[in-house]
C-alpha cells in the first residue's frame, strides 16, 4: 500500500506541487539560495522506487551469513548492503544530478536574484526578444553539458564494478 502511494506520486506533475513546495521553501527562508533548488529534489519517489527494487535483488544469503557471524544490523548495513548498493546509488546520483541540473521552472520560481541563477536560467538570457545569437547560445549549451558528463564519467566506475561484486557463486 505504501509502495503504491509512492508510485502514485510519480504521476503528479511538478506544476501541481509547485505552489505548495514554494510556500514551504518560503517559510524555511530558503528563497534565493541554492538550497531552495537542491532540497525539494533530495528524496524523490523515483529514487525510493529504484533503491527498493535494487535492494530486493541483493542475495539474502549474504545477510544471513553476516547474522550467523554475529554482525549487528548496522554492521550488515554499512559493510555488506551499502557496498553492494553502490551501483544503484551511482545510477540514482547520475539521474538526480541530470534532473536537477536540467530543471528550468523550479529554479526560475525560487531564484529571483541574477547572482544566484542556475546555468539553465542563465542560458535563457542568451535568447533575445527579437534576435538570438546562436553561436553564443550553442557555445553555452556545450558548457552546461560538461558538469553532467563529468559526473557520469566519475560515477560510471561504480556501476561497472558493482555489477560483478555480489559475492555469491
Oligomeric state: single chain
Overall 3D geometry?
Answer: elongated
Number of strands: 0
One letter per element, helices H and strands E, the order comes to HHHHHHHHH
Instruction: Report strand %.
Output: under 5%
CATH superfamily: MetI-like
Report the CATH C-level class. Mainly Alpha
| N-to-C span | 35 Å
Helicity level: over 70%
Query: Mind summarizing the main beta sheet?
Result: none
Uncertain runs are: none
CATH fold field value:
MetI-like fold
Q: Mind telling me the C-alpha Rg?
A: 21 Å
Give the helix tally: 9
Residue-averaged pLDDT: 85
What is the CATH architecture term? Orthogonal Bundle
> How many independent structural domains?
1
Plain-language structure description:
With 169 residues, the protein is mainly α. The chain has one domain (2-163): MetI-like (MetI-like fold), CATH 1.10.3720. Helix content is 70%, strand content 0%. The protein has nine helices and no strands. α4 packs across α6 and α6 (73-101) packs antiparallel against α9 (134-163). It is elongated. The model has no long low-confidence stretch (mean pLDDT 85).
Task: List the topology elements.
Elements: H1 2-9, H2 14-27, H3 34-38, H4 45-56, H5 60-68, H6 73-101, H7 105-110, H8 119-124, H9 134-163
Helix pairs in contact: 1-4, 4-6, 5-6, 6-9
Please give a quick description of this structure.
The chain has helices spanning 2-9, 14-27, 34-38, 45-56, 60-68, 73-101, 105-110, 119-124, 134-163. By secondary structure, it is mostly helical. The relative contact order is 0.12.
